[in-house]
Specification:
Layout (H helix, E strand, L loop, with lengths): L1 H13 L5 H19 L13 H13 L4 H20 L26 H8 L7 H16 L3 H6 L5 E2 L4 E5 L5 E5 L2 H13 L1 H4 L19 H15 L7 H14 L4 H8 L4 H4 L1 H17 L4
Antiparallel strand pairs: 1-2, 2-3
Length: 297
């Protein structure tokens, strides 16, 4: 069974161009499913022997164990993707997922920062220090463009056009998109390039934009840690993650009249329904303002 998982992961890597994070998540999901299939309650050892009821029973067991709805949906997507691949390659005769629908998940409204909280967060890095200046540039660029953390950390120096005010990044499925960059973010990136990056650089041929203290590309874990530290230092009583800045970027644009399609394009969402969650968030904000400010509310 592991041999087929490996073949599927190779397929989504080389044919579909899915990110390393997605590949790892699909592999974990499928190996977990294999563990269930091989257990005493199921005792299935070949993919061609898996029945529809086995998949439903697995998802039901996961739900009973308290697995999040979003994780359930991704797990099902992993299984369905595997079987679509196996059937297409002629490795199984029947696809047990054909008539199964993706589990309905209730979308949780993302937490966002107010404009005042964003300003407060931006003030936390000590820009007199090389790493502090780098951090300010990263925060400004992420909030100013709404890019994902993986996209931010993969940026190369040549991906930002300072004069024209845009950046180029590769999103999910290695799809390229062009995003406008505001003057504030460009100013901080230019200051970082002029004053800090050369001090962090260890290899002259390194073209990655944001470097860690050892002159190498910053890791996701490193960035999460940096952001959490600044969030705690700011005194903001919210969990602040890279997605918080992305959500705040989208919501603030829509609250100020941006077109939904334009926001979809900047975020790199394949389906506009993904972007529409931010319109619900804006409506929630409108209700909050109304109840706070209207004398009859």
């Amino acid at each position: 069974m592991d041999k087929y998982i490996t073949a599927f992961i190779d397929f989504i890597r080389y044919e579909k161009g899915l990110s390393a994070n997605t590949q790892a998540a699909y592999q974990r999901d499928l190996q977990k499913f294999v563990g269930y299939l091989n257990s005493e309650c199921c005792q299935v050892s070949r993919w061609e022997d898996v029945k529809k009821k086995d998949i439903l029973n697995y998802l039901s067991a996961e739900m009973d164990a308290g697995v999040a709805n979003s994780s359930l949906a991704r797990s099902f997507s992993s299984i369905k993707g595997l079987y679509k691949f196996l059937a297409g390659e002629g490795l199984v005769a029947l696809n047990p997922t054909t008539d199964l629908e993706t589990p309905k998940i209730r979308r949780k409204l993302p937490q966002i920062l107010s404009i005042e909280e964003v300003d407060k967060l931006m003030e936390q890095p000590d820009v007199l220090l090389p790493l502090g200046l780098r951090d300010r540039a990263m925060l400004e660029l992420m909030y100013g463009t709404g890019i994902r953390v993986s996209e931010l950390l993969a940026l190369q120096i040549d991906d930002i056009n300072m004069m024209a005010g845009f950046l180029r990044c590769l999103g999910k499925g290695r799809k390229e998109r062009i995003i406008p960059v505001n003057h504030t973010a460009i100013n901080w990136v230019e200051r970082y390039l002029a004053r800090s990056r050369s001090l962090l650089l260890r290899r002259s041929q390194e073209r990655t934009l944001f470097l860690n203290a050892h002159g190498r590309r910053l890791s996701r874990q490193g960035y999460f840690k940096i952001l959490a530290q600044y969030g705690e230092k700011s005194g903001i009583k919210k969990e602040i993650t890279p997605h918080t800045l992305r959500h705040s970027f989208a919501t603030h644009l829509l609250e100020n009249g941006a077109d939904l399609r334009a926001v979809q394009e900047m975020l790199g969402h394949a389906d506009i329904s993904t972007t529409q969650i931010y319109t619900h968030l804006s409506k929630s904000r409108l209700r909050e303002v109304y109840h706070q400010c209207h004398p009859r509310a």
